[in-house]
Amino acid sequence: MTVTPKPGEAPTTIHTPAEGLEQGDFDLATFDGTIKAYYAAPAGQSNVPVILVIQEIFGVNEHVRDICRRFAKEGYLAVAAELYQRQGDPSPYTDMPKLIGEIVSKVPDQQVMADLDACVRWAATRGANVAQLGVTGFCWGGRLTWMYASHNPACKAAVAWYGKLATGHGPLQTRNPVDIAAEVHAPVLGLYGAQDASIPVDDVRRVEGILAQGNEAARASQMVVYPESGHAFFADYRPSYRAQDAKDAWARALEWFRKYLA
User: Which of 196, 203, 236, 245 is catalytic?
Assistant: First the structure.
């Protein structure tokens, strides 16, 4: 990873070069046609593990693409799909409540699960090892990381970054991590900030209690809370970024995937 900000960007913005990688946009075939997606993988390698990267609330922006390249540099095929393309384009929005009301709240979990499954099928056509399947997500995608870990029995590891635990973003999200934590198929590493006003630490502790009483994968899960961080502490292009905690969390995420996708 290199930190080379472009004009107008925060000085912490990370840009991971594409040298040594296969990467780019593609049309992902899913249940009702195609949606846009991005992938990155080590060049010239096959049978590599797969990590599904679930977007922030802002969609598959450059930050999410860079995360895919970071995973590719570590030896994974990483893929991120535009999971609410059908509902609209998030990129012009600057008003968060408006974005949630007009687009995000209209995205059903069933649609997201189907599109993520389509990503797995696509990865198999690229010669990746879908038996070594992980999922990670940020903000909006953090909640959905939990949901996918309970949806797909083939999932082997999950890392959820500051995703809501007890609520969703609208009436179409009828179940949440608190409802499924005990029955996840994959061990989940949850990464949270104690100063995150949108996710109370009480919710984190509640999920910890549920995990402790759950199945084998649930009991192997782990919650990490960074005392000084708030929401989106990993988003290096935003003022919420906290470099020290982000570095620690990234190291933990890589170790988690190395452990369970070996």
Answer: 196
